């Protein structure tokens, strides 16, 4: 085999490997999203109070920071990702119950759900078809996310609806960027662990859904 | 309500704790954007903004 054939064989192997990661990521992502939805339904049926959302987010974050990276290379990582997404789904149920109590709540939830689906499928399709490397956005996305988190913390005390809307809008844009970034990393072979890839994409979808709910909940009311 | 605020701040600070090393890593190791790269990002993001506006109009 000459050097040229070697390069082709190597890049062919990489494509097969990244396609496998992509396929496993989408399979696990659909399973975790389904499990989250199930947990949300359970939480709504029980009538969990809104504080459960924050508790679930903090517990999921602790698992995501300290447990998932240590277990992502073993089969126990799958259990951990289901635990994280189940917790987030359970917390989400309490938020959905609050929205369902609004006059146009069911419409807001359905619209946010459809919007999240369109954004995710559209951006994933775009990243997959262009095959462009979006990893140049890494520093920009994490810096933007830090600014948004600081604004979120400030708004806990300031309680400004306009800032809340701006934060939600910023999260949707940054998470959209993360979908492009994460998908291109899988295609380019930068992310080879499908559990970590699923975690990244799940968080983007979850945050887009929550932010869309908030924007539509505020803007969708009678003025 | 105070508990909600405290938990919110705890969650925010934890997020910053996670984001800081990731930011440092990616700002040092990100490849430089080439010509047309940012345009390729801004186009779908503009489409997302348009979709959100449409969704807001749909629930009004």
Shape of chain B: flat
User: What is the general shape of chain A?
Assistant: globular
Proportion of residues in β-strands of chain A: under 5%
Q: What is the residue-mean pLDDT of chain B, rounded to a whole number?
A: 90
Low-pLDDT runs of chain B: none
Rg of chain B (CA only): 18 Å
What value does the average pLDDT of chain A take?
91
- What is the helix/strand order of chain A? HHHHHHH
Description:
The complex is a heterodimer of chains A (223) and B (60). Chain A has 223 residues and is mainly alpha-helical. Chain A has one domain. Chain A is 86% helix and 0% strand. Chain A is built from 7 helices and no strands. In chain A, helix 1 packs across helix 7. Chain A is globular and about 55 Å long. The N terminus of chain A is likely disordered. By secondary structure, chain B is mainly α. Chain B is flat and about 45 Å long. Chain B has one domain. Chain B has 2 helices and no strands. Chains A and B meet through helix 2, helix 4, helix 5, helix 6 and helix 7 of A and helix 1 and helix 2 of B.
List the helices and strands and how they pair.
The complex is a heterodimer of chains A (223) and B (60).
Chain A: H1 3-46, H2 51-71, H3 76-100, H4 105-130, H5 138-158, H6 161-188, H7 194-219
Helix pairs in contact in A: 1-3, 1-6, 1-7, 2-3, 3-4, 3-7, 4-6, 4-7, 5-6, 6-7
Chain B: H1 2-29, H2 37-59
